[in-house]
Amino acid sequence: MDNSLKNVISQxxxxxxxxxxxxxxxxSFLGIDIGSSAIKVVQIKKKNGKAVLETYGAxxxxxxxxxxxxxxxxxxxxAIVQALIDVMKESNVTIRSGILSIPSSSxxxxxxxxxDKITEDKLSSIIPIEARKYIPVPIAEVTLDWFVLPKTxxxxxxxxxxxxxxxxTIEIKTEVLVVAIHNDTxxxxxxxxxxxxxxxxxxxxxxxxxxxxSFSHDLAPILLIDFGASKTKLSIVEEGIVHVFHVVNRGxxxxxxxxxxxxxxxxxxxxxxxxxxxxxxxxxxxxxxIVKLSIEYIFSDANNVVFAYQKKYNKNISKVxxxxxxxxxxxxxxxxxxxxxxxxxxSNPFSRTEAPAFLSKILEISGPEFSVAVGLALRQxx
Length: 382
Ligand SMILES: Nc1ncnc2c1ncn2[C@@H]1O[C@H](COP(=O)(O)OP(=O)(O)OP(=O)(O)O)[C@@H](O)[C@H]1O
Ligand SMILES: [Mg+2]
What we know:
Layout: H1 3-9, E1 28-34, E2 38-47, E3 50-60, H2 77-90, E4 98-102, E5 107-114, H3 120-131, E6 142-148, E7 153-154, E8 171-172, E9 174-182, H4 183-196, E10 203-205, H5 206-214, E11 222-227, E12 232-238, E13 241-248, H6 252-262, H7 267-277, H8 285-313, E14 319-323, H9 332-340, E15 343-346, H10 360-379
Parallel strand pairs: 1-4, 4-10, 11-14, 14-15
Antiparallel strand pairs: 1-2, 2-3, 5-9, 6-9, 7-8, 11-12, 12-13
Bound molecules: adenosine-5'-triphosphate and magnesium ion.
Magnesium ion binds at residues 35, 228, 324, 372.
């Protein structure tokens, strides 16, 4: 493991959003999101203090592993390298300096609750010990990073149930958001960078890139949903800080697989049906029903996450932001509104960048898929 990298990451989670010793003389930056089904790249230039979109592109990874477009892959490093070289060439990426995101599937994010008396300097010895309970591999094999969450009052369980009883004291605890990344993952990502000759000083967890490009100045709690091909990532973010992170092991590719097996058709045919029908019962009730069941499975997990948060902090979610290619399923917006009973919006990351007006519609539609890549590129110029 490269020691310099380890140091950067262990400086605290804040370093995840400030990892780069940003080369201010360079004016263009690349964001690279290696998802389970596709790689997305975004090149942004800084001009007169503004972020100008130079180019962007995506490439499906399926064909690099002899499988279909949209399928979830588990490719060798060399295949990823080839796909990254291809997508950069096809989308006319001109620079070789950027940031890669670390997917949630290659990392663990959890919250530790520690006694309030622990001082900041003791955290570095206590967190690795406490984190052991959450990490299924020897602690020496992972790189840890953490961020002490701002103090919030947790409402004690009973105080809202029985109004006649005197209110219980509100407990104030130290909560720490911890990120653990397997060292092998970091080594693999460094190898990808080396083989593609991309200069990079660090990585960023995809959730933090996603927040940067999807949020405005939102303070109230927001549920951010990243609906990927393999997994759906749920985060509750308050004042720009992740308080809760949860991964549902279902994504867009599972819906395609379900359609393929129910209709005894190929993955690629099922993928087309999923995209054209979505949740629209009128166009194809059989397909729409399968999509609906899969979405309801994910929403049921999301509801549990939201409920646990409401119960713990006595606060409601003020908005839901949809990101990830899977969120483009037809009818998902309406379904989300009726499930969460709150405002639901699509992430519009390209709205942070300047681009020719004629592209605005297409950029808005592709936005959710590129949230992570845009966030990575933006980080280097903000
Ligand atoms: N218009 C659409 N309608 C329905 N589904 C879509 C649409 N466009 C893309 N998808 C789905 O989005 C998924 C890919 O999304 P995304 O690119 O965000 O995934 P990923 O980043 O590769 O996956 P992960 O984040 O899980 O690693 C695929 O399952 C694909 O079928
Ligand atoms: Mg993704």
